[in-house]
Amino acid sequence: MTGHVELRGVRKAFNEGRPNRFWAVNGIDLALPAGGVTVLSGPSGSGKTTLLTLIGCLGRPTEGRVHLDGTEISGLPEPFRAALRRQTFGFVFQRFNLVQGLSVFDNVMLPAYPIGTPYRSLRDRALDLLQGFGLGHRVDARIESLSGGEAQRTALARALINDPPVLIADEPTANLDSELSLAFLEIVSGLRREGRTLLLSSHDPLVRDAAVVDRVVELRDGRLVGDQRRSEDSR
Amino acid sequence: MNDFRGMLERQRYMVDYAVSSMARRKGRNTGLFIVYGAMVFLLASVLFYTSALQHEAGVLLAEAPEIVVQRMVAGRHDLIPTDHAEALRGIRGVREVRGRLWGYHYDPVVRANYTLLVPPEGGIAPGTAVIGPALARARGAGMGDALGLRGHDGNVFSFRIVTVLPQESALASADLLLVAETDFRELFGIPTGRYTDLTLRVPNPREVQTVATKVLEALPDSRVILREEMLRTYDAVFDWRSTLILLPLSGALFAFAILAWERASGLSADERREIGILKAVGWETGDVLRVKLWESGLLSLSAFVFGTTAAYWHVFGLSAPLLAPVMQGWSVLYPDFALTPMVDGSQMLALFFLTVFPYLAATLIPVWRAAVTDPDEVMR
Ligand SMILES: Nc1ncnc2c1ncn2[C@@H]1O[C@H](COP(=O)(O)OP(=O)(O)OP(=O)(O)O)[C@@H](O)[C@H]1O
Ligand SMILES: [Mg+2]
Fold first, then answer.
1. Is the CB of residue B100 less than 8 Å from the CB of residue B63?
2. Which residues line ligand 1 (CB under 6 A)?
3. Average pLDDT of span B332-354
4. What DSSP designation does A45 have?
5. What would the pLDDT profile of B193-235 be if each residue is shown by its tens digit?
6. Do residues B56 and B75 share a domain?
């Protein structure tokens, strides 16, 4: 499994060409080797979400480049980026972004439709994931009826349905109590063991200080202000 | 092979998603379907109706003689004497000259006019009559029954009905009453040697104009009616009438298109978000468009099929009760005559393009605009 991400001089401006132009990400150089858990930390508005969307091919940097396993992906044509979004990066959004009106099951299977995965194996994989996350009894529930924790695990199952090497989660514990947060970290540790690259944003100390985390990158005003790696024995 | 199966599977998922997404917006889609279907229904009714009437007129005139000569006295149509016919026989290009006997009879019982006619081939025995289907229905008369008519002198004539004409061209024959020549003359008091008008058969269409000029030279007191002109007049009348209806209808259509456009271009926040989510989880722009194309296509196609089927039934099954008052104002005795079902392929195609394409464009363009935007911007 691959998933080596590298950023070179990445900047992202909002309101480009207007007087209120604003650099949300302002010159980031960062290498994330394949495998391991990295936490992107920093105060609100420091550019964490923006940076994650640039890595996950949801948006394009205004300047600079994003590489995946040595290939530049920030300048690829749209269909290639769509393919990366569904097969290389699993994304769990800050507000989950599940499709209202659909069931948990249907939401989880969405990223597999463009691939044309045969229905039988797709269904089995979706059920496996949901059962693994303790949602076996909520498969047919509508999104509107889910609790915050259930919605988050649904979003997580959706992000993993195509078995991507990189999982990106934006503020995964923002709406969870300590118990659910710890359960989430448990899942993260399982995914890490499977060899995936995990990238989380969080200003939750519970996440930042968790044993499963290999590295904490500190962001402020769109710039890197800290990069703390943990050795095996300090964890 | 595997790729092909994957492609099929992908299509199936997209269709499934489109159907479920339509079901999720049931209220909105039902409303659209009703408005859309009603619009197609109206347009298709007008098209079916005018083309069927035009077809009837064509049948009516196909058998008609190339030239009809009528005598004018003081600017009014008058009976024409036989020696007028003799004067025309020598004209080059004329194959046959015949005197016709026809006229109208007002029947106070059903308060309508019949068209009385002596068939040029003869063949009707004195005292008997052949009647059209609408007349038969109006009088409740069938074969073997007696039909009484008041003559010019107040005497009642009784005809025995020997045949009721078939329905084939209802407009042409619905109110016909065919009688023998002697009965016709007696009923209306027309002396022998006089006819209602004369018909000329001119086999070569290029000679018709020349013949017409020569007829006017030979008979200065006559007027000439050409079949070509009648056909043109019919067409003009039908076109004019259908334009009369189509104008406000196209106005309504336009309003509908604008409505659809406005609705669609201002994609609801919900829909924009959904498109953003689909793109974010790895759907391609083409996938999103395909789903929306299926949605809009299913909706507009089913509304089209529904509208045209209902219109077919309305026009040919029920004789167009909603349009008849406008479209058929000149006819006299057609309480419920049935039009011969006929549908013009090119008109259907035109209707299809007029109703389905604007809708597809109006709904797909804004979707396309949302779908080509990076998902991080659509989802905000
Ligand atoms: N589409 C946009 N247009 C204008 N400004 C934006 C846009 N998106 C983000 N920003 C701004 O960019 C900055 C960084 O936003 P971002 O969402 O990346 O921060 P964050 O670190 O994720 O914050 P939080 O912890 O609150 O989620 C913020 O000041 C935000 O207001
Ligand atoms: Mg954020």
1. no
2. A 14-15, 22, 24, 42, 44-50, 94; B 380
3. 68
4. T
5. 899 988 888 888 888 888 889 888 888 888 888 887 777 766 6
6. no
Q: For a substitution probing ligand 1, which of A10, A11, A12, A14 has the most ligand atoms within 8 Å of its CB?
A: A14
User: Residue A55's domain is classified under what CATH number?
Assistant: 3.40.50.300
Residue B1 has pLDDT above 70, yes or no: no
Residue of B7, B24, B281 to mutate, interface with A, max A Cβ within 10 Å: B281
Which residues constitute the domain of residue A142? 34-60+78-229
Q: CB distance A78–B282 less than 8 Å?
A: no
- Structural domain including B80 reads 67-226
For residue A169, with 0-12 CB atoms within 10 Å meaning exposed, 13-18 middle and 19 or more buried, which class applies?
buried
Encode pLDDT of A35-60 as tens digits.
899 999 999 999 999 999 999 999 99
CA distance A181 to chain B (A): 24
A12 CA → ligand 2 middle, Å:
15
Q: What is the pTM of this model?
A: 0.74
B278 and B323 co-located in one domain = yes
Q: What is the ipTM of this complex?
A: 0.93
Protein residue with its CA nearest to atom 31 in ligand 1: A45
Asked if A8 contacts A67 with a C-beta cutoff of 8 angstroms, the reply is yes
Whole-angstrom Cα distance, residue A92 to residue B24? 24
Percent of chain B with pLDDT over 90: 17
Total count of domains within chain B: 2
* Axis-axis angle for helices B26-62, B227-265 (nearest 10): 170
Closest residue in chain A to residue B14, using alpha carbons only: A113
Q: How far apart are CA A43 and CA A206, in angstroms?
A: 15
- A50 CA closest ligand 1 atom index: 18
Chain A nearest C-alpha distance from B6 (Å) = 5
Confidence of residue B238 (pLDDT cuts 50, 70, 90): low
